[in-house]
Specification:
The complex is a heterodimer of chains A (428) and B (299).
Chain A: H1 6-34, H2 48-55, H3 57-88, H4 94-102, H5 109-119, H6 128-140, E1 157-159, E2 165-167, E3 177-181, E4 205-211, E5 235-240, E6 243-249, E7 255-258, E8 266-269, H7 289-314, H8 318-326, H9 331-359, H10 363-368, H11 380-388, H12 395-427
Parallel strand pairs in A: 3-4
Antiparallel strand pairs in A: 1-2, 2-8, 4-7, 5-6, 5-8
Helix pairs in contact in A: 1-12, 2-3, 2-12, 3-4, 3-7, 3-9, 4-7, 7-9, 8-9, 11-12
Chain B: H1 2-17, H2 20-55, H3 59-64, H4 69-72, H5 80-87, H6 89-122, H7 128-137, H8 144-157, H9 163-186, H10 191-199, H11 204-215, H12 217-233, H13 236-241, H14 249-257, H15 264-284, H16 286-295
Helix pairs in contact in B: 2-15, 5-15, 6-9, 6-12, 6-14, 7-9, 9-12, 10-11, 12-16, 14-15
The chains are: A alpha+beta (428), B mainly alpha (299).
Chain lengths: 428, 299
């Protein structure tokens, strides 16, 4: 110490203590007090507001979502940060990679929210998440060739279960079958050939699937008129007693040939031919909205975890890792048995910091969730805002939520104070 | 640094002893690792690139197709959204408001935090450690706890919905971290330096401005950048305490979000514009930002 008089210290401390007292400490006390009163602030209601926090459906959704947030977001962000920190050590341009991943931390949650509104657009033509998702989906499950196509009413084909169409009567080998469809989207037959009647082949079931619609009018329903388009790539099944006994796919001219086994069967055009185009995932719909927003959060904060863990990693003695490698441990064992245990204190700090951060999450949810699923994405900080400001508010409930948030971070206060006290004692 | 120099050599020695298959596996693994990191890096960049490219497209193009279409149709690129944005007085004014909130809130937190940090590090007063613990305890108090009470208080003082109120709020909530960070940094100043200045007849204030503040440069830089980004990026506090007729950029854009499709041109370009300052600060002061983040890991 320098042996100064206390009043000098008081002058130095006064601005800080005044601001902290008025805007941080006093509000804690006031919130505690206010949470015991009703919406008007006049009627004492005891613990009723707290009871409402745990019984009101919307607030319970918020509590449940907060639990999901606190469990999932810090864990995933820390795991990614750990993986990135360990892997970037092995490449020369690791710093550039870190910069890219860390950058989202510098921008506002509002900007990140707008960014992810664009990413999560439902329409796969606009939202990149669904564009990628639909691309993957269609690689593994081919899209239906003619979504929405159907036979004319009162024709030979009638709707059977699950969106497929089946002929009324059984088909005979040697007589070509006509399977006309309408309501085909023009873009689906853009480059299609003209349909031709299938030849009668003895012993086999043949036929044509085509778009029974003559452009500019005319033509006869159920007959292949000149200029009518063939429907290539349609699956045709022969069904006996409800079981498919044979199947074929139409060729470029719309014709198909089924083996003799199809004789006497009914022909079915399965629903897979006509299913609506796969439209991707409803990222911001009621069920997925919270996981989607957590995804945006992880995009922002994995970099934070990565940078802290990388700093911790720099302090890990290399000799320990090398010793393990010389002893024959493979990289995974070194990571699992040496690196992670040595990093445990850093990992704990990162997870706890992220947990506190996540408890207070507000902007991202408020911006990303569309009005229709805002209630499904509700979190405590958002509920507090909605309960406290705007129309039809109850600041008693708002204060109760504030106190709840404070109680949830209280253990961290204790840990922090303990840690700092220990550090100070260690120094003396 | 010397140990870091030694390690690669040790590494090479170990590598040389490995069998040929092990070396091939290592080489292959290295290639895979690079591919993986490049893919992840692109994946991480994609949302931001998407925003930038969206902001450079026509509103009707945004409605019709995704931003990646510009790679096929570069003619779609246009600065029209930005022209619309710059012509929008409200948004331009909001950027100014953001600056008018951020700069004072940053300067005040540094100044007040440094005064208190110095007192906690070097001045004598009863219960000093206890008071410091209280301040540290306030580090994690969520701003949400203060929203209702401070709104009421500001209402009484006549500074509710004003820039002054927002600045005071951000200063108060930035203080625990500022005091914590600066006290720890100031405490490392060699005692002889301060005593020598005192012997030269410098008063406490002079000591503070001439010795402590200049020596605290690195910590003050970290704190300043941290607080600057924090306040610039804030939406919640401004949503409640800022003048709703003259809000900062985050709130001005937030007001447009409920009609996302209709306003997508202003939102995309506005969001990107609002990111430019923080990104510039981030790239210019990476090191200080990182050390601020590390020190602030408790916040």
């Amino acid at each position: 110490m320098l042996g100064t008089r206390p009043w000098i210290a008081a002058c130095f401390l006064l601005p800080a203590l005044a601001l902290l007292g008025a805007l941080v400490v006093y509000p804690i006390g006031y919130s505690l007090y206010r949470s015991l009163f009703d919406a008007s602030g006049d009627g004492f209601v005891g613990a009723d507001n707290y009871q409402e926090v745990f019984t009101d459906d919307r607030i319970r959704t918020a509590l449940r979502n907060n639990v999901v947030w606190v469990v999932v977001a810090p864990a995933v962000a820390t795991a990614l940060g750990l993986i990135f920190a360990v892997l970037t050590e092995r490449v020369r341009w690791g710093t550039a990679f870190k910069l890219v991943v860390f950058m989202p931390m510098a921008i506002s949650m509002l900007a990140a929210g707008i960014i992810f509104r664009l990413v999560y657009e439902q329409n796969p033509d606009r939202g990149v998440a669904n564009a990628v998702w639909v691309g993957i989906h269609d690689t593994f499950a081919a899209p239906a060739p003619y979504p929405g196509a159907r036979p004319r009413p009162n024709g030979d084909l009638t709707a059977s279960d699950g969106g497929s169409y089946t002929t009324r009567g059984a088909v005979r080998a040697g007589t070509a079958v006509a399977l006309p469809l309408v309501a085909v989207k023009p873009e689906d037959v853009g480059g299609a050939k003209e349909a031709i009647p299938a030849r009668d082949v003895a012993g086999k079931v043949t036929g044509t699937v085509w778009m029974d619609f003559t452009r500019g009018g005319g033509g006869t329903a159920g007959k292949i008129d000149a200029g009518e388009k063939a429907l290539a790539g349609v699956t045709v099944e022969a069904v006996k007693d409800g079981r498919a006994v044979a199947s074929a796919t139409t060729a470029g001219d719309g014709t198909f040939t089924l083996p003799p086994a199809a004789d006497g069967a009914r022909l079915r055009l399965p629903a897979a031919n006509f299913a609506a185009a796969y439209n991707g995932v409803d990222w911001l719909g009621p069920t997925l909205v919270t996981p989607s927003i957590i995804g945006a959060y992880i995009w922002m904060w994995a970099g934070f975890a990565m940078v802290l863990i990388a700093a911790g990693l720099a302090g890990v003695p290399r000799e320990l890792l090398e010793a393990a490698r010389v002893d024959g441990a493979n990289e995974w064992q070194v990571f699992r048995r040496v690196t992670v245990p040595l990093l445990a204190p850093v990992l704990a700090v990162v997870v706890v910091t992220l947990m506190i951060n996540v408890l207070k999450i507000f902007d991202l949810v408020y911006i990303i969730a569309p009005g229709s699923s805002l209630d499904n994405a509700n979190v405590l900080a958002l509920q507090l805002y909605q309960s406290s400001f705007g129309t039809n508010v109850n600041q008693g409930v708002g204060s109760a939520i504030a106190v709840l948030l404070l109680l949830l971070v209280l253990p961290v206060v204790v840990v922090n104070v303990r840690r700092i006290r220990r550090e100070k004692e260690g120094r003396r | 640094m010397s140990t870091a120099r030694v390690t690669p050599t040790a590494n090479t020695v170990v590598r040389a002893e490995q069998s040929l298959p092990a070396r091939i596996a290592a080489r292959l693994g290295g290639g895979l690792l690079r591919v993986f990191l490049v893919v992840v890096g692109l994946f991480w960049l994609m949302p931001t690139v998407g925003l930038l490219l969206s902001s450079l497209r026509d509103k009707s193009d945004i409605a019709a197709s995704g931003w990646w279409q510009v790679f096929a149709h570069p003619a779609q690129l246009t600065t029209e959204s930005y022209s619309t944005l710059f012509a929008n007085d409200k948004v331009m004014q909001s950027l100014l408001t953001t600056a008018l909130i951020t700069v004072p809130a940053t300067v005040l937190v540094i100044l007040i935090g440094a005064l208190a940090g110095y007192a906690f590090a070097w001045l004598d007063f009863p219960g000093r450690d206890w008071w410091f613990m209280v301040v540290v305890g306030l580090l994690v108090v969520p701003v949400q706890v203060a929203l209702i009470p401070v709104a009421k208080l500001f209402n009484t003082l006549g500074i509710f919905e004003s820039t002054v109120g927002v600045v005071l709020f951000h200063t108060a909530f930035g203080l625990p971290f500022a005091v914590f960070l600066l006290r720890n940094f100031f405490a490392e100043i060699p005692r002889e330096l301060l005593e020598a200045a005192r012997l030269d007849g410098a008063g406490e204030l002079r000591l503070f401005t001439r010795v402590v503040l200049p020596l605290g440069g690195p910590a003050i830089a970290s704190l300043g950048i941290f607080q600057f980004l924090w306040v610039w990026n804030d939406m919640l506090v401004a949503l409640i305490f800022a003048d709703s007729g003259n809000p900062p950029i985050t709130v001005a854009l937030q007001q447009q979000v409920r009609q996302f499709g209709d306003n997508v041109d202003i939102l995309a370009s506005g969001a990107f514009l609002s990111m430019i300052v923080p990104l510039a600060v981030f790239f210019a002061f990476q090191r200080q930002f990182v050390s601020g983040v590390m020190a602030g890991a408790v916040k």
